[in-house]
Amino acid sequence: MPIKVLVAKPGLDGHDRGAKIVARALRDAGMEVVYTGLHQTPEMIVTAAVQEDVDVIGVSILSGAHMTVFPRIMKLLEERGVDDICVIGGGVIQENDVPKLKVLGVREIFDADATTQNLIDGIERVVAEFGRARKRTGAATPAS
Amino acid sequence: MTRSVPVRVHRDLARAITAIENGYASFGDTLATLPARENGKASFVVGVTGPPGAGKSTLVDRLIEKFRAGGETVAVIAVDPSSPFTHGAVLGDRVRMQRHSGDTGVFIRSMASRESGGGLAPTTHDATALAAHAGFDVILVETVGVGQVELEIVAVADVVAVVTVPALGDSVQTIKAGLTEIADLFVVNMADRPGASRTALDLKHMVRESGRDVAVLQTIASEGTGIDDVMVALTAARASESSNAGRAVRFEVVRNIRDAAVRRALAVLDAPRGRSVLERLRAGELTRLEAREELLVYALAEVINAD
Ligand SMILES: Nc1nc2c(ncn2[C@@H]2O[C@H](COP(=O)(O)OP(=O)(O)OP(=O)(O)O)[C@@H](O)[C@H]2O)c(=O)[nH]1
Ligand SMILES: [Mg+2]
User: Fold this and answer.
1) Model ipTM?
2) pTM of this prediction?
3) Are residues B216 and B254 in the same domain?
4) How distant is the Cα of B113 from the closest Cα of chain A, in angstroms?
5) Does B28 touch chain A (CB under 8 A)?
6) Which among B19, B29, B89 is the nearest to A33, CB-wise?
7) Domain A4-137 is in which class?
8) Dihedral Cα B91, B79, A86, A130, nearest 10 deg
């Protein structure tokens, strides 16, 4: 089944050209890409990810807000009882923040030089390693 | 009182839809993962269809607002096309509905159309049923931008709104070919553009000719203009109960006959008589038309013998 990805662009920075290019590249690689537009808050990102039940949330940040955005996303996912959606990030992120983000549970960080092919490969790798296919074998979890 | 739906149910409904969509659970098993609907009321399913870029998602956004103002919970199932080559898809409908993100009375789910050609995904019908079971009062189903033949929405929705834009030349003619039959309501959106009244008039004439009672309304969805009229029409259709029931049955029958015919035709091709027709076609002894006619005769004989 196609990998389903949410491409999210939090914060107030810029335009959505980059995110749209990424969305199309992932589509051309056979993925189903949910695109939610500009200026997304972590709440909006997590709500969309839960309702869409994506495999991966890809967050693109250029504004330097990553150390507030990612912790918030991870916390909201936990609050909503979701532990099978992989979070990855890209954009301008200082190298010494990367380990901190990984500790939070962010699976992969792409720097600003990453090509779309790097992204595609990275997403496939992350899903193969941490994705729900391994966690949720077979069926939907019954309501308790 | 404005109802809402627990966030937990959002998650479980989302997972249930994925299970059905990806075929790793049966519908019955999936249903069992959701709490049973409390209020016992049936959901009201509104189909929103029409050509690409007509403003379907923008209209859905406005309808969410109105139904919420009336206190009802709303689920949206929005279908976007899959690439037939890569099977990938960009699902962008919810961009227009993001302002409802913080409202737990609203659930929005995008679906890629996958291999289906009917304007919906193969499992949209089931997804709608799951949303109904999860207790959403109103379900808005947005199809992919459709032309003339993608009419599956009839089998899913109680009421179908066909959204169009002011016509460029002959586009009313284009609509005529299929969407008129399924419309319970015509919405000429982008009424801020020239030609809207003319298009609405053309549609009204067309509706009169067809002998059906279908309202033709004008909206500017991006500004929220004319939406109250759409709500009045939807509410009336809802009250009249089974406006779509007859067509849905008809559609189901047509689809079953089509599927059965395809199965029989394939069986004929595998039978000795069918194979010989194919061989003669390949050898140039028959034209395509002759081959088709001969195969049809065999297939019909099969059908008659089977009965
Ligand atoms: N001028 C004008 N623009 C509108 C109106 N309604 C929607 N739009 C704009 O038309 C564009 C397409 O609107 P959508 O709602 O995405 O159209 P859609 O039918 O859902 O498109 P697809 O799902 O891609 O087929 C957007 O830029 C909207 O802002 C309107 O009444 N007038
Ligand atoms: Mg749309």
Assistant:
1) 0.90
2) 0.86
3) no
4) 10
5) no
6) B89
7) alpha beta
8) -120
